[in-house]
Each structure stands twice: as structure tokens, then as C-alpha cells.
Amino acid sequence: MNFLTLVYAALKVLTATPSESTISKVIPPHESTWTYDGKGNGINDWYQLYPKCKGQFQSPINIDTRLVDYNSSMKIDFIGFQKLYQAFIENNGHTVQLGVEESTKPVLTGSAVDNKIYVFAQLHFHWGTDSLLGSEHSINSTFYPLEGHLAFYRKEYESFDKALNYSDGLVVVSIFFKHADEENHALDRLIKGIQKIPRYRDKSLIPGFFNFSDILPSNLNNFYKYSGSLTTPPCLEIVTWLIIAEPVNISEGQTEIFRHERANMISSKTGEYAYLNHNYREQSPLNHRRVTASFMVNSNTDQNEYIA
Ligand SMILES: *[C@@H]1O[C@H](CO)[C@@H](O)[C@H](O)[C@H]1NC(C)=O
Ligand SMILES: *[C@@H]1O[C@H](CO)[C@@H](O)[C@H](O)[C@H]1NC(C)=O
Ligand SMILES: *[C@@H]1O[C@H](CO)[C@@H](O)[C@H](O)[C@H]1NC(C)=O
Ligand SMILES: *[C@@H]1O[C@H](CO)[C@@H](O)[C@H](O)[C@H]1NC(C)=O
Ligand SMILES: *[C@@H]1O[C@H](CO)[C@@H](O)[C@H](O)[C@H]1NC(C)=O
């Protein structure tokens, strides 16, 4: 039986705003075929259409800093991130995703990625219903309310889609956002852009120009690295993850704007698209992978140190 044709009664009571019931049915098959909450095509069923989602080296993970190796010679160079770009942002039913119009994109290189060149493809976000959850990765089992993913493909492979065929095809830089009392006005343009795309498939230009520095922390030298997967279907295990340690401030009110986006699922209660108020994937075990840090993570160091 084709699950896409069924109407589902997956009920989950959400305590935080927006407090709409998520009883939902899956939208028709010509549209997006996976969801976070839908029954039959929600997180636990992704593997049915995308077998890799059951792989051994999946993302996200928890980073237990006691188990992290130290390698001081890992460096990342961010090139073209201080320039201004004309950026657009889109609600794709799973997240809000930002791209740049210019043909010359920002790039990433450095010893942490074997000095290969990776070209910026898109930036998207993961969040949750309340401030205790939302990020996909966690440090010492502590989650952040929001996590941004800057996705890059290896230049040699010419495009994002072609790079998906290679084990070193993608690099994703992860940025954590942490709740602070004050609004972070550097995020104003991004947030204004998000407010313009509340519905599934809405797309808009970011007002003015976009400066990546506005959404990056000041310290980009301290990061964790491990090998994993896309955290959404097709869950391909081709991602070098670079997780920046220092979080960026955001206010609860600013995070709330993300929670008012609509998903690619119809709520049977309202007959409208359901709120996309959480879009993080559950974590996977490390399974013998090692996480490396570019800095001394623990105060009292019983850490393995690699001398490069
Ligand atoms: C982008 O922002 C950074 C950090 O605030 C700043 O140093 C840089 O000058 C900005 N770029 C432009 C072109 O305004
Ligand atoms: C440390 O990092 C450098 C740069 O990424 C790499 O060349 C080297 O192999 C790493 N050392 C170990 C022991 O993994
Ligand atoms: C990936 O590789 C397969 C087999 O080599 C090829 O058929 C396919 O066209 C490639 N896909 C892309 C997007 O390059
Ligand atoms: C982030 O917010 C905290 C207070 O919550 C403040 O101490 C800190 O200076 C802020 N960081 C930046 C970069 O503004
Ligand atoms: C994680 O825990 C270790 C020791 O258990 C501690 O030294 C370290 O500061 C913690 N790091 C973070 C970011 O919570």
C-alpha cells in the first residue's frame, strides 16, 4: 500500500507555542515526500525510501568532550564571508534555507578539510518547540535552542548534486545559537527575511544585503570535527562536520519567529499547513568514530593530544 495516499492520525500534544495539534496527513506525492512528524514518512520511516538513514555513521551526535582528541593543527579558512551578498531565503517545508545569488560564492578551505576547496551551497536551521531543545548536535548532552548549518560542496565535483556521489563531497559547518536576554540585532535581516516566508514554498530576498559575519561567532578557530551524514533524507554518509564551539546569541523572541514557520504537512484539525515548530533529528551513536577538537576542550586535560 502506498503510504503517501493514506491519511494519518499521528497525534502529539505540544506544550509550547504554536500549540496547534499535529494530527496530520501527508501531502500528495508530487510534493516533498518526507516530514518530521507525519506517520509513515516521519523520522522513523525515512529509511523506507532512503535506506542510508539506517546507516552506521549517521548524524547528528552528542559530543562528549571527555572522549575528544585534540589536534592543534586543524585550521579552517573562511574566504569571502565578510563580503555582502544578495541572498534569498525559502521555506522548503523542512526548514528555512538561505542561498546567495552571486555566482562567486563564499568558500571554505584549510587543513581541517585537507586543503581542498569547498563552495558554499546553502544555510539552513534546526530548532525546537522550547528553549531546552532544538539543536541537532549537543555538547556534553547539552542542547541549544537553534543550530545553523552552512553546507558546502567540494569544488572539484562541480555542483552540490554531483558532490553527493563522493565520500568527501560535503562539508557542513554548524553554528549553535544560545538564548540571551537581549535581542541580537546582527540577526535582524535574517529574521526579517524569515518573517516574509511563513508558508511552505514561500521565497523572498533578504532585505538589503546579507553579511555572513552577522550570523557567525567571533571565534571560528575552536571547533570539533567528525565524519557523519546529512541529517535529512537521503542521509548520505558523505559529510565532514565542523562544529563551531562558541555559540551566537539570540533572544527567545527571535527564535520564536522560526517556530511560526509552516511545514509541508496539512493539519487535519485546521486543514492548514501545520507549524514547523521542531525540525531536529534524533541523535545517532558514534559507532567507533572519533571526534577531534582544534582546541583544548577540557579544563583538566586528560585528553589525548596529537602532535602533528
Ligand atoms: C561584514 O561584517 C563584518 C563584521 O561585522 C565587518 O567587519 C565587515 O566589514 C562587514 N562587511 C561589509 C562589506 O560591510
Ligand atoms: C591533525 O590535523 C592535520 C590537519 O587536518 C592532519 O593533517 C593530521 O593528520 C591530523 N593528525 C592526526 C594524528 O590525525
Ligand atoms: C553518481 O554516480 C552514478 C554512478 O557512477 C551516476 O550514474 C550518477 O549519474 C552520478 N550522479 C551524479 C549526480 O553525478
Ligand atoms: C551574549 O549574551 C550574554 C548575556 O546573556 C552576554 O554576557 C554576552 O556578552 C553576549 N555576547 C555577545 C557576543 O554579545
Ligand atoms: C564538558 O564536560 C567537560 C568535563 O566533563 C568539561 O571540562 C567541559 O568544559 C564541558 N564542556 C562544555 C562545552 O560543556
Automatic annotation (TrEMBL):
Which SMART domains does the annotation name? Carb_anhydrase
Q: Which Pfam families match?
A: Carb_anhydrase
Give the required cofactors. Zn(2+)
- The reaction(s) this protein catalyses: hydrogencarbonate + H(+) = CO2 + H2O
Cite a single GO MF annotation.
zinc ion binding
Task: Tell me its EC number(s), please.
Answer: 4.2.1.1
Keyword Signal belongs to the record? yes
Alpha-carbonic anhydrase domain segment(s): 32-295
Q: Which CDD domains match?
A: alpha_CA
Known InterPro entries for this protein?
CA_dom, CA_dom_sf, Carbonic_anhydrase_a-class, Carbonic_anhydrase_a-class_CS
The superkingdom listed in its UniProt entry is: Eukaryota
What keywords are assigned to this protein?
Answer: Lyase, Metal-binding, Signal, Zinc
Tell me the leader sequence span.
1-21
| Family per record | Belongs to the alpha-carbonic anhydrase family.
> What does this protein's UniProt record list under function?
Reversible hydration of carbon dioxide.
Name of this protein: Carbonic anhydrase
- Which species? Tetranychus urticae
